[in-house]
Amino acid sequence: MERTYVMVKPDGVARGLMGEVLSRIEKKGLKIVGMKFAVMEEAKAKEHYAEHAERPFFAGLVEFITSAPSLSLVVEGGDSIKIMRAINGATKPAEAAPGTIRGDFAVDTGRNLVHASDSPEAAEREIKIHFGDAALISYPRCDDACLYE
Ligand code: GDP
Ligand code: MG
């Protein structure tokens, strides 16, 4: 089963949207196998967003991500990487379709509520940054048998 890293960013926590995000993931049929509620350390935020280090918004992004608590998740399921990107919606809320988290709840690119890994390599890297060797917990869901052919 594929795993991906998902984050409810500080704006999502502050707006009381953790439950909404968790609910969408669970209802879709994906399984939450890791969860951590914390204020992200600056070093981790910089590593997480390293690909954007040269972009003009990088400093503000790191400052915001480390300013208040966020919710880190590891989400498991078939095609979970692509599915979570689809659930989140396009990076720019103006381009995010209704029915996606960003399309339904966000207005500004710098406050787009959620993150999800964009490739298998990114997922592995990001899970390692945020969960290290912490145990991820696999468990049966009673709908497992209905979700897959
Ligand atoms: P994502 O993978 O959909 O989150 O998008 P990116 O990897 O392109 O960018 C990472 C994050 O940086 C986005 O989710 C935004 O929070 C932020 N970001 C990206 N582009 C911009 C921008 O032009 N301005 C600002 N303020 N933030 C941006
Ligand atoms: Mg990205």
From TrEMBL:
Keywords linked to the UniProt accession: ATP-binding, Cytoplasm, Kinase, Magnesium, Metal-binding, Nucleotide metabolism, Nucleotide-binding, Phosphoprotein, Transferase
Residues of the Nucleoside diphosphate kinase-like domain: 1-138
The protein's name in its UniProt record: Nucleoside diphosphate kinase
Top-level class of the enzyme under EC nomenclature: transferase
Catalytic activity field: a 2'-deoxyribonucleoside 5'-diphosphate + ATP = a 2'-deoxyribonucleoside 5'-triphosphate + ADP; a ribonucleoside 5'-diphosphate + ATP = a ribonucleoside 5'-triphosphate + ADP
GO molecular function, one term: nucleoside diphosphate kinase activity
Binding site for ATP: 9, 57, 85, 91, 102, 112
HAMAP family: NDP_kinase
Species annotation: Methanimicrococcus hacksteinii
Keyword Cytoplasm found: yes
Entry annotated with the keyword Chaperone: no
UniProt-listed InterPro entries: NDK-like_dom, NDK-like_dom_sf, Nucleoside_diP_kinase, Nucleoside_diP_kinase_AS
Function: Major role in the synthesis of nucleoside triphosphates other than ATP. The ATP gamma phosphate is transferred to the NDP beta phosphate via a ping-pong mechanism, using a phosphorylated active-site intermediate.
Gene that produces this protein: ndk
Compartment(s) where it occurs, according to its Swiss-Prot or TrEMBL record: Cytoplasm
Active site, per annotation: 115
Record EC number: 2.7.4.6
